[in-house]
Amino acid sequence: MLVFEIALLIIFWGSLVLFSIGAPATCLNALLFFAIKSFRRSPSAYYIVGQSFADVIILLIILLEIVSAISVSISSIDCKLMIFSIQMAISVAMSFLCLSAFDRWACTSQTAGIRQLSSTYVARFLFPIPFIICSLLNILFLVYCDLIPPINICWFTNDIFMRIGTLVLSPILTVFLPLIVLIMFGLLTYRNIRFVTHIRHHANQARLSTREHQMTKMVLIQTLLCIFCSFPRAIFVIYAVATIDQSADRSFDQLAIVTLVDYSSQSVLCINFASSFYVFLLSSPRFRKTVQVYLKHQFHLGPNQVEPMNMGTTGKTLARR
């Protein structure tokens, strides 16, 4: 009983903490990469904005799931929309993470044709695709999920789709496929960077701008964190699939331990959706400086409020603004 209570506490407090620290930072992340012109010049900015939108949806649904868990007035529509939305949003967020990793590989490639794939034109073209494809792939969750009487638990209404959803769709779209893509493009990007370092003296070497270099560093660190956070969930899913036929024979204590590991791996996976802003902030001095200047400008903070200034200079500054 104690293990089961610990599992409930983890999912409750973990969700609150993730939403509290993740939602404001994710909204600020989307605002920065959308509003600041120097960021918009990088193709990865489009993917980061798309990922931020999906992250906000995920964190909001996680909070709403806590509310619905302690509420007695959840409806059938709420049940369907929650399961569909969380599956779709996680798939979209992981897809944009993969697109960011792909863009950094293309940007650092030595082949001119591959480098052309890293452009704002390609990014604008690809931006709506994850939302469309992930919505279509997960639309069956709207059909085969509902409240199950008499306890009104939100679950699958079809046994065949339950196995498809829990053993195929959800693990592949949210864990295994993104994990494979992130590892592959992360290694390829690292190889490209090492290759550039060794041949930098070559006359025809096309060097990255400071902006793109910082963006590559930020995305690589985010990719590495995402890989580490996805591994526990991948291991648990493999275990759950391998022992699915034994689940009916488990005792209450065994089920409580499995539930504890399940909730813990979910919480670790959700770090991906709350940490991108902090990863960028810690990994890039340029990003920190840009955030500092942007926030000072938005909230009118700076030395001109407490220090005397020449009126002519102030007038010219205000006219330029």
TrEMBL record:
Key words of the record: Cell membrane, G-protein coupled receptor, Membrane, Receptor, Transducer, Transmembrane, Transmembrane helix
Membrane topology: Multi-pass membrane protein
Main subcellular localisation: membrane
One of the record's GO molecular function terms: G protein-coupled peptide receptor activity
A Gene Ontology BP annotation from the UniProt entry: neuropeptide signaling pathway
TM stretches of this protein: 6-35, 56-75, 81-102, 122-144, 164-190, 219-243, 263-282
Domain G-protein coupled receptors family 1 profile: start-end pairs: 25-280
Pfam families in the record: 7tm_1
Cellular compartment(s): Cell membrane
Protein name: G-protein coupled receptors family 1 profile domain-containing protein
Species name: Rotaria magnacalcarata
